[in-house]
Amino acid sequence: MLIGALLLVAGALQGPSVDWKSEVKKTGDHWQxxxxxxxxxxxxxxxxxxxxxxxxxxxxxxxAVSALGAPVxxxxxxxxxGERVVEGxxxxxxxxxxxxxxxxxxxxxxxxxxxxxxxxxxPEEYAFRExxxxxxxxxxxxxxxxxxxxxxxxxxxxTPCVFPMxxxxxxxFLKQSDNVHAGRFKALMYGLFIVLLYTVPIxxxxxxxxxxxxxxxxxxxxxxxxxxxxxxxxxxxxxxVFAASFFGAFEIVLPSKWTNGADKGSERKGLAGxxxxxxxxxxxxxxxxxxxxxxxxxxxxxxxxxxPMVTMLAFxxxxxxxxxxxxxxxxxxxxxPKSGGWxxxxxxxxxxxxIALGLKFLSTADQTYHWHLLDREVYLAIWIVCFTxxxxxxxxxxxxKYDSPVxxxxxxxxxxxxIDFTFVVYLIPGMWGAPLKALxxxxxxxxxxxxxxxxxxxxxxxxxxxxxxxxxxxxHGLSAYDNLxxxxxxxxxxxxxxxxxxxxxxxxNCREMEARVWSDPAVLQLLRDEFVMVALYVxxxxxxxxxxxxxxxxxxxxxxxxxxxxxxxxxxxxxNAQPNYFVLAPDGSRLAGPRGYDLDIPAFVAFxxx
Length: 610
Known about the structure:
Blueprint: H1 2-14, E1 18-27, E2 30-39, E3 56-59, E4 65-67, E5 72-80, E6 83-98, E7 102-112, E8 115-116, E9 119-120, E10 124-134, H2 139-155, H3 165-176, H4 180-227, H5 229-246, H6 256-265, H7 270-284, H8 286-300, H9 307-328, H10 341-368, H11 376-394, H12 411-427, E11 471-473, E12 479-481, H13 484-494, E13 497-503, H14 508-516, H15 521-530, E14 531-537, E15 550-551, E16 557-558, H16 561-573, E17 580-584, E18 590-595, H17 601-609
Parallel strand pairs: 13-14
Antiparallel strand pairs: 1-2, 2-6, 3-7, 4-6, 5-6, 7-10, 8-9, 11-12, 13-17, 15-16, 17-18
């Protein structure tokens, strides 16, 4: 007995009886706190389910951090007088739900009591504090936007507004360069100036809105820009005007005073001349790059505040890179094709693509305001006609004002014809309800289609207004409540969990998740049988009755469904991007989430089951 007491005193003087280390790591679609302890020789401690003095974990109160389920222990159990105890290595894992973005702190304490023989010490504590960086947008969706921006940036080189600038670029650097090293330095600066001219203005605009109004104001601006009828109809009309211009109806140019002034400035020596040459390129190429830049920006506003800046950076780097390389190696100009009739063909092809892309803006306004002007079969019919005409144009059967006669079809042109008509054939079954999963993000939802002949794919009901009986028709015959309160009440009555879908009518990634992940039989069975679904459309413009208006802490009065749902998503769930998914208990406590855009079906099933 004396020896045991001496051991305890000695242990207390040496330090803690368990040496703990902590870390927080990302595991699949959630975070996990891992506490690893090493029990000192001569001691044992008790697991969490011990009768009297079991080990406990307590998380520090935080709006951003909450536990998901019970902690899990890992140790090789030992026996002391019939009692299960812990000796040696002791690992405790606690799944976490972390909301918000940026740096989030996970803190708390582990409490345990160590024993030696029959003698136990006073309880000891280990305080842990770990900082994690929560990404602001789903990686999958962001990388898809970046890749699309890069491809458009490279494609712009072949447009008739941009390609003629190639000789001007080469001749400038041949004349301006005093030596090879100076020329290459100016070439690098030329590329940098192009990138800055595209990226800095959008960074300044977004930065100012964030600084003056915070995330809420920025989210409201993005929501308005991407979903309100005014900017969407405006962009639709701009695309149609540009398409008409590409077909040869008229020429769109910026005021000559702007371009002439920039061109005159490029005659200066040093970096000033390089800057004005870059400015000239940006201004002259506007009639081709303008609609594409607008598309990239509008799509990226469905992410966090920095997503448009990243995508614009990707676009501008890809756009600037060919010019930078030509400035580095002017001799390459000899190997490039000369300007000619092929450039007008590129322009006409872009015109057809402009029509197809412009419809997305009209479709977004149509869905958010429930006009039902551009339902799925109408949208598809326009695309089928548009791309069929494009195929005939590539074959030389249709000619526009400035086209040269097509006397023969090159192998490259024939390859484009095959690709185009294959795409048309792929679209046609969609007129009878084929899901067209590859294009699900761009098409209006299947629920808007008037006739569906594919067995089992018919919508459960027409899209219901959100102010009716509060039940929405969802993809695959599912249904959802349009507000959280009704969903929680139904879940409590039915003994089910709540699946919260933070979504939008104009959200491309939301439609893709629904078409490619929700359609999986395992996912569909879980959503149908084990959950009450709540769909929070953050861009729906339906007006709410006055008793359902929300007044924010800043005094703003939110009067429509979308603004209220956007406020709920930010205030209650800490997100302002779509899609985002959460699993709640009937009492509203969070069980899992957030989970964003991710096409990994097994991981989504695991998310629902957890």
